[in-house]
Amino acid sequence: MPGKIIGNAHWLLQPGYPTLSGEKGSEKITALYSCMRVLLGGSLPAYDSTFYLEGWDFFNAQEHLVLREREITPCEGGEVLLIKLVYSGVDAVGLEGDFDVYEEDPYYRGLEVNVPIELHPNHRMKWNHSYIYDEANGDGRDILTYWSDADDERIPDNLSGYVAWIKPDDSVPKGWACVKAATKLGVETYKISIPEVRKRTYSRSRAALLSKLNSDLKKSTPPDTFGYEGEWLQQASTLQKEGNYWVIEQGWLGSKDVDDDIYGS
Less packed terminus of the chain by CB within 10 Å, N or C? Predict the structure, then answer.
């Protein structure tokens, strides 16, 4: 089935493509498309952009491979063009010179995380708890004002032993009655996005990268915060050989506050 690049409905992916080939440190993605010559215009993807094709999530995830080669070949008659794009890593194209360290541009992504609904800043107990009271001892006390505003399970002294919170699936004790059911039944978590910045650095010398490991799991600011206002915790790094190069991959997680007593700087 023909594939489609976003913003480029006229490119048709050819059978047998895309492909991922090569050894560790020298992998490349090759994609071959056909396009009518009159529709090509300025639609070629830019060098150093990453591969993207709707429905090809595995290939789209290879973000360390960027566009290095573009080749356009007219078919017979010249009305149809074959467009070949090759995405590869730094090592695959061969870094030249006596550089000490080569740094890729950092990139940003948001990490989607489910956290307990109780941690939501606007959380109310009524969202995911049933509110019950002791019928036998009912005396007309106001119990609904507390029900509406309670943000934790602590019961006020004037209602102690008279009302309680239970999970919706729990049984109501004998002699008690449910005053209010949970208003957000079944909602136990909510999603947040944690900002993350990642960066890869290359060197022929392992020793040239070792000092970067000293900032792991410490309070540290990434080379680009992408506008996030907060503090950052550097994640554990990876350092490994890829082809002819040593590569360190670093990451930073954003937070409103990073505890100096625990992580320092």
Answer: N
Residue 142 has phi, psi (to 5 degrees) of -75, 115
Rounded to an integer, what distance in angstroms lies between the CA atom of residue 43 and that of residue 6?
A: 11
Q: Are residues 106 and 223 in the same domain?
A: yes
Residues 109, 222 share a domain: yes
Question: In which domain, by residue range, is 223 found?
Answer: 102-113+193-263
Q: Kindly report, residue by residue over 132-151, the tens digit of the pLDDT.
A: 998 877 666 778 888 988 99
- Higher local confidence (pLDDT), 243 or 98: 243
pTM of this prediction?
0.55
Please, are residues 66 and 50 in contact by the beta-carbon 8 Å criterion?
Answer: yes
107 with 155, same domain: the answer is no
Question: Does any domain span residue 1?
Answer: no
CB 34 within 8 A of CB 12: yes
Tell whether 231 and 106 lie within a shared domain. Answer: yes
pLDDT tens digits for range 38-47: 777 777 888 8
Domain total in the chain: 3
Is 187 part of a structural domain of the chain? no
In the predicted structure, residue 3 carries a pLDDT above the cut 60? no
Phi, psi of 66 (to 5 degrees): -125, 165
Q: Are residues 47 and 159 in the same domain?
A: no
- Looking at residue 185, its pLDDT comes to 93
End-to-end, the C-alpha distance of the chain in Å comes to 53
